[in-house]
């Protein structure tokens, strides 16, 4: 039995409406980025908080901080953003911190990604305190390779 195209379109519309009527989650994140490289007199960093959908393609940028440079071994960061629900039948936010930095002795830019704890979509306010040590994980061309 074939399903009429109009029924499929109605179902698609219902799925879109259900996804868009979920509540907003305000997200606040702060912490330190630490460069333990003894041979780096000045280093720079940028951190982006993203949410990756498991079933849908794409990544949502929630908040970003930087590019900020420092002559001391740490940078304090603070950022705010929000999410308006997640994918269909997805009850958790799958968030990651994507960091690009120049903490090395070779004037190179590095990129690292840290998966964060799952956050229930039902929460309306989330505060995250996350501290990261810089590492030479993957080479990046610019600070904006997120």
Strand order of the largest sheet: 3-2-6-7-11
Class from helix and strand fractions: mainly beta
Beta-strand content: over 45%
What count of structural domains? 1
Q: Kindly, what is the distance between the CA atoms of the first and last residues, rounded to a whole number of angstroms?
A: 46 Å
Shape summary: elongated
CATH class: Mainly Beta
The count of strands amounts to 11
* Count of helical stretches: 1
Summarize the main sheet: 5 strands, antiparallel
| Backbone CA Rg | 19 Å
Low-confidence stretches: none
Give the integer mean of the pLDDT values: 84
Order of helices and strands: HEEEEEEEEEEE
CATH topology: Immunoglobulin-like
Helical content band: 10-25%
CATH architecture: Sandwich
Pfam families: DUF870
Signal peptide: 1-23
InterPro entries: DUF870_CAE_spp (IPR008588)
Keywords: Signal
Question: What's the layout of helices and strands?
Answer:
Layout: H1 5-20, E1 25-34, E2 43-52, E3 59-70, E4 74-83, E5 92-93, E6 95-101, E7 109-115, E8 119-120, E9 125-129, E10 132-133, E11 138-140
Parallel strand pairs: 1-9, 1-10
Antiparallel strand pairs: 1-4, 2-3, 2-6, 5-8, 6-7, 7-11
Describe, in plain words, how this protein is organized in 3D.
The protein contains one helix and eleven strands, in the order H-E-E-E-E-E-E-E-E-E-E-E. The mean pLDDT is 84. It has a single domain, classed as Immunoglobulin-like, CATH 2.60.40. The strands form three sheets. It has a five-stranded antiparallel β-sheet, with no helix packed on it. Strands 1, 4, 9 and 10 form a four-stranded mixed β-sheet that branches. It has a two-stranded antiparallel ribbon with strand order 5-8. The N and C termini lie far apart (46 Å). It has 146 residues and is mainly β. The protein has one helix spanning 5-20; strands at residues 25-34, 43-52, 59-70, 74-83, 92-93, 95-101, 109-115, 119-120, 125-129, 132-133, 138-140. The longest helix is centred in the N-terminal third of the chain and has 16 residues, at 5-20. The radius of gyration is 19 Å and the shape is elongated.
